[in-house]
Amino acid sequence: MTLRLQNVQKAYPSGFMAVKGVDLDVEDGEFFTLLGPSGCGKTTTLRMIAGLETPSAGRIFIGGQDFTDTHPRNRDVAMVFQSYALYPHMTVRGNLSLNLEVKRIEPAEIEGRIQNVARMLDISALLSKKPGELSGGQRQRVALGRALIRRPNIFLMDEPLSNLDLKLRERTRTELKKLHETLKVTTIYVTHDQAEALVLSNRIGIMNAGDLVQIGRPQEIYDRPCNIFVAQFVGTPSINLLNVTAENSGGSLMIRLKGEEAPLGSITLPASDEVFGRLGMVGSDVILGVRPEAIAVLAEEEAGAAPAEIELVEPMGSVNNIVLRLRSGPEATADGEPVIAVVTSNESRERGEKAWVRLRPERLVIFDKATGNTVAVLSDRRWEPI
Amino acid sequence: MTAQQVISSVSGDDRVRTQATKAGSFRPTLGSIGAIFVVGLWLFPVYWIGLTSLKPIKEINSAVPTFIFTPTGANYWELFTKFDFARVLMNSLVITIVSCFVVIVLAVLAAYSLARMKVPGEKHIALWILSLRFLPPIAVAIPFYIQWQDLHLLDTYLGLILIYVAFNLPFAIWMMRGFLADVPVALEEAALLDGLTRLQIIRRIVVPVVMPGIASTAIFTFVFTWNEYLMALMLTAFKSVTVPVTIAKFVEPYTVLWGQLSAAVVIQVVPMLIVVFLLQRHIVRGMTLGAVK
């Protein structure tokens, strides 16, 4: 079923605005993730869809029908809770079947569905156990099964993987994706883990301080963030933010590191008039966002490359994270952090070595220094507005 | 036996047993010898009462306490034949069980509302409910007597049941509120999304999960009611007289019927032991284990 949120808000009696007006259209069968730091309003939004919280304003449509004032019991949405919320006094079978019993579905049909879901989630052997006898991963499966068995209009998942250890989390993540591809039920997934969001979602909505900041496909969010917050929140290691000046040089955008005379040669590329127009408004002092994989670390000097020193090498197995300090001084980065580059691990580098940083003309974003909003992104070797 | 003793013996039971098995063998220490002494001091009167209930009158009145004698059932026999103790026992059982049941049902519902719903001025209500318990029963005994007389509730089951419900409810609500506050809200939300109504949630989710709390509260309520003396003395005469009141009557102006008194005390303890035994199965810790995380 489709889901539509229309200017949905949640204000608490204390005056705190947990959700400041979310507009959202989720297509039928879509896996949509609300991603954001804790306290950004993503869980509150999910709970409003479930009916566990009442919106202070706005409407919620499920399958085109207004469900804003419908009791949660009658919404036919299934939710997987972060804490699982399994009924401790019931067996796994009882946990799975409660909803169907309440709906007065034939016992034979219930049994069939239990077997089906248990097989799908590999919990057939656990049916007569109680939640207290299960491991964390097994509980998580039962919680998932309790939602699956209902064949609901919409699945709501509130950080369902956050209590699992890393290995299990990644495995379950893959299974969740497979499951969604088989069942194609509209799913709203809440998480603060950007990797989960990128892997699972058809589309992601990034939330910050009660606002839905950006909606887009995972790659879009990663490549074309709409502001610094989104750029920083998505991607590990985090995006590098360099203080630069950007000026028009014969139709091309010439970018210099702050305090450096020589332009970063590799990325002096043509830009559209709109980009120049925007730059005219925000000024030439801007922030350049550089994904760690867009940095080439050179051992020898090269025109248009910035001199730096290797501060630390973090081997990650297939790649190395290289932590660099730009020679132009601590003001080189907007957040005062060193620059991080991700290079393949066969390029051996040592701490303290001199290096030259060359930017690849990909995944680069120019942000307005004052507002943090995106001014331009590099796309097909051309600076374009987002 | 006081309520505290009942509860501590109930909850402490398993722990002590597991510790003893873990230790393997019992090694007498200064502490354990002291404990045995204290327990002996407490249990001796109980033992003595049990012994007395089986003694013939001559042994009871002997100047030197006797421990070895030919036991007799005469005291018990007289209790039931001469003093109509079966009816008294039945009175106590009916009054206690009915008031206990009513108290638990009302307490669970009231405590649930206090713990979960937005009740206007709930903080004040909670304290006010508890403050009812501060009132010494003697302060209201006489007003109740007069009112009960007008309402023709004197010496009736209903009269005593109403009193016991009113007296025990505040405490039971207070106790249940604590247990209910510990039930994870997510459980109820999950049940809500599973399509259960509020009452179904209480019956199928909340009550089973707080069963240990209900059992503890029921034990307290049962013991308080079963042993209550003052109000029963004031408000009953013949028809609905209870066990504690009857026992007191064995202390006569010129003599104390020690044999019958002891037999009655022994019988009075039995229902409490049964209730505690039946309910303690539910007092298992970690009932919510596996519910969350």
Written description of the protein model:
The complex is a heterodimer of chains A (386) and B (293). In chain A, strand 1 (3-11) and strand 2 (17-26) form a beta hairpin. Chain A has helices spanning 42-50, 92-102, 107-121, 136-148, 166-183, 194-200, 218-223, 228-233, 273-282, and strands spanning 3-11, 17-26, 31-35, 57-62, 65-66, 77-80, 154-158, 187-191, 203-208, 211-216, 240-249, 252-257, 269-270, 285-290, 295-298, 306-315, 319-326, 339-344, 354-359, 364-368, 374-378, 383-384. Chain A folds into two domains: 3-225, Rossmann fold (3-Layer(aba) Sandwich); 233-385, Nucleic acid-binding proteins (OB fold (Dihydrolipoamide Acetyltransferase, E2P)). The model of chain A has no long low-confidence stretch (mean pLDDT 91). The two termini of chain A are 30 Å apart. Chain A contains nine helices and 22 strands. A seven-stranded antiparallel sheet of chain A has the order 13-12-11-14-20-21-22. The longest helix of chain A has 18 residues, at 166-183. With 386 residues, chain A is α+β, with helices and mostly antiparallel strands. Chain A is elongated, with a radius of gyration of 25 Å. Chain B has two domains: 3-53; 76-288, MetI-like fold (Orthogonal Bundle), CATH 1.10.3720. Helices cover 73% and strands 0% of the residues of chain B. In chain B, 35% of the residues are buried. Chain B is built from 14 helices and no strands. Mean pLDDT of chain B is 85; it is low at 1-23. Chain B has helices spanning 3-23, 30-53, 57-60, 74-82, 85-116, 122-134, 137-150, 157-181, 185-193, 198-209, 211-227, 230-235, 243-248, 258-280. The longest helix of chain B has 32 residues, at 85-116. With 293 residues, chain B is mainly α. The A-B interface holds A 50-52, 72-75, 77-79, 81, 83-89, 98-99, 102-103, 130-134, 136, 139, 146, 150, 163 and B 184, 186-187, 189-197, 200, 204-205, 208-209, 211, 286-293.
